[in-house]
């Protein structure tokens, strides 16, 4: 029995799957360690087959050296796009880290092997909430849609202009810090005012030793007002998802 094989189609799907695999390994929520590696590989291969109608028309089969070079380029492109998405959503984790630092939880810092995060309670909590919101709100579908559209700007084996990712990385880092301060800013201001108030109280009545009450007071304020920050996270994650898609589609 003669079964014809379209080698150009197979090569295109393999190259697309390599880009998808590099992206899935780095970008949230797919990069979470609790997701088995077998599932990630199946997802990447399935996405590579799904984009076949977009990438196979006009694809010309390459020789061995050209195909290996195209594989390396696709790996680089997928990793760059995944890191841009990771950078955007690091703002939520950074906001939790700021709250931990100003609220006095930084001493309970620990490493989470599932999310690969070294942080205290609010850092890990905010990261888990962001991942859950990405899945429940369908934000991951927008990210996958942006990744699929990247094949229009970055054809298979074509590489990319390194100036664009570098500029987007600088923009992404600045936006990450700005978003982190905006998320945690109100609670940080309250904690700063609490420290200032305790300092004034110590100056007025040194015998009270107001700073001995500072740690439990700041913990109480953080736990009491932290729910207000968490309530704002759905809108924040939605905005960050739009920023991630914009960064993915902006690479050329």
Automatic annotation (TrEMBL):
InterPro entries: FliR, T3SS_IM_R. It holds the Pfam family Bac_export_1. The keyword Transmembrane helix applies. The chain crosses the membrane at residues 12-30, 42-60, 66-92, 125-148, 168-194, 215-233. It is a multi-pass membrane protein. Keywords: Bacterial flagellum, Cell membrane, Membrane, Transmembrane, Transmembrane helix. It is found in: Cell membrane; Bacterial flagellum basal body. The keyword Transcription regulation does not apply. Belongs to the FliR/MopE/SpaR family. Role in flagellar biosynthesis. This is Flagellar biosynthetic protein FliR.
């Amino acid at each position: 029995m003669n079964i014809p094989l379209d080698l150009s189609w197979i090569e295109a799907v393999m190259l697309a799957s390599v880009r998808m695999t590099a992206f899935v390994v780095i970008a949230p929520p797919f990069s979470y360690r609790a997701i088995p590696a077998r599932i990630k590989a199946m997802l990447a291969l399935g996405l590579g087959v799904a984009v076949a109608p977009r990438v196979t028309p006009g694809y010309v089969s390459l020789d061995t050296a050209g195909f290996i070079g195209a594989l390396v380029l696709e790996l680089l492109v997928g990793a760059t796009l995944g890191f841009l998405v990771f950078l955007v959503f690091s703002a939520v984790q950074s906001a939790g880290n700021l709250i931990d630092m100003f609220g006095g939880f930084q001493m309970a810092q620990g490493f989470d092997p599932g999310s690969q995060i070294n942080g205290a309670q609010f850092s890990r909590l905010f990261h888990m909430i962001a991942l859950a919101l990405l899945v429940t709100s369908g934000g991951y579908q927008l990210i996958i849609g942006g990744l699929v559209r990247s094949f229009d700007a970055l054809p298979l084996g074509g590489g990319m202009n390194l100036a664009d990712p570098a500029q987007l990385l600088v923009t992404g880092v600045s936006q990450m810090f700005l978003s982190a301060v905006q998320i945690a800013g109100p609670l940080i201001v309250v904690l700063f005012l609490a420290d200032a108030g305790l300092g004034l109280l110590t100056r007025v009545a040194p015998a009270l030793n107001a700073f001995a009450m500072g740690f439990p007071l700041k913990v109480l304020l953080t736990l009491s007002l932290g729910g207000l920050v968490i309530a704002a996270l759905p809108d924040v994650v939605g905005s960050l998802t739009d920023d991630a898609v914009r960064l993915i589609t902006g690479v050329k």
